[in-house]
Amino acid sequence: MDDVTEPSFRLGTRPMNSATATAATRTFVRPSDPTPAAPESEADEYVITFSNVTVNLDRATVIRGAKEISLTAAEFELLTFFVQNPEKPLTRDMILESVWSYLPSPNTRTVDAHVLRLRQKLEKSPDAPRFFVTVHKVGYRFSPTGA
Description:
Elements: E1 9-11, E2 14-16, H1 18-28, E3 47-50, E4 53-56, E5 61-64, E6 67-68, H2 73-83, E7 90-91, H3 92-100, H4 110-122, E8 132-135, E9 139-142
Antiparallel strand pairs: 1-2, 3-4, 4-5, 5-6, 7-9, 8-9
């Protein structure tokens, strides 16, 4: 038997690393009790807020205004990558490798399609994005201040 240090998970048809599998599980598996116990303190959770959007990375939840926004596992992973790299220009290849573990491909529109969906769900005006900004000839940048 091979000695494997990190298990490989599969959800759907794409292989995932353990962090992706955990986020996907949190997204699709909901507790049966509709009122789960509160954390010991807010400091125990990794929460990022920009504009009227609150992202709780520990609970894999996204709230815009007062409404919870439903994201796919892939969308949540992309959002997580963006919020962990604020104001950094991120190439499509960097995003493909880090979020999906894909090898760079000049023909894939995966990143563009997922960024478009994030914009539609989280931006006030998806046609004039303030937070998920296109960086010409590079890729994208997450700007939490909307500048």
